[in-house]
Amino acid sequence: MNTSRQPDARVRHVDIDGMYLSVALMDGRIIRTPLAWYPRLPSADPQQLAQWEIVGAGSGLHWAGLDEDLSVQGMLRGHPASGFPLQRDGATI
Questions:
Q1: By CB count within 10 A, which of 20, 52, 67, 78 is most buried?
Q2: Is the pLDDT of residue 89 over 70?
Q3: Contact 81/38 with Cβ under 8 angstroms?
Q4: Distance between terminal CA atoms of the chain?
Q5: Helix, strand or coil for residue 70?
Q6: pLDDT digits (tens, 9 = 90+) for 19-54
Q7: In this structure, what are the phi and psi dihedrals at residue 16, rounded to the nearest 5 degrees?
Q8: Angle at 18 between CA 59 and CA 62, to 5 degrees
Q9: DSSP states along 19-59
Q10: Distance from CA of residue 15 to its chain's centroid?
């Protein structure tokens, strides 16, 4: 009998370094995205960045002091913040 479980894509922990946002999920996966994708985060100081909270029963992150909200689903899909210029094959799209 084959029993498969749905991945648990709820946030477990967040780590932020100078260039990346890394989000550890309950099922063991880690999503790592560039801070530059989220315009409010790169310009924040370390204390502001550390003030994240898990929201939506683990489906997202919120920085009250930065007015920033990110969803796990958006990160899993590779979606940067609205207005961030994506490049594909050297061209901005």
A1: 52
A2: no
A3: yes
A4: 46
A5: strand
A6: 999 999 999 999 999 999 998 999 999 999 999 999
A7: -130, 125
A8: 25
A9: SEEEEEETTS-EEEEEGGGSTTTTTS-HHHHT-EEEEGGGT
A10: 10
Q: How many residues does the chain have?
A: 93
Q: Decide the pairing of beta strands 68-71 and 87-88.
A: unpaired
* pLDDT at 3 exceeding the cut of 80: no
Hey, what are 34's tokens?
A: 């560039």
Q: Which residues make Cβ contacts (< 8 Å) with residue 15, sequence separation at least 6?
A: 21, 22, 24
Give the single-character DSSP code of 77. T
Give the mean pLDDT of 57-70.
Answer: 96
What's the predicted TM-score (pTM) here?
A: 0.82
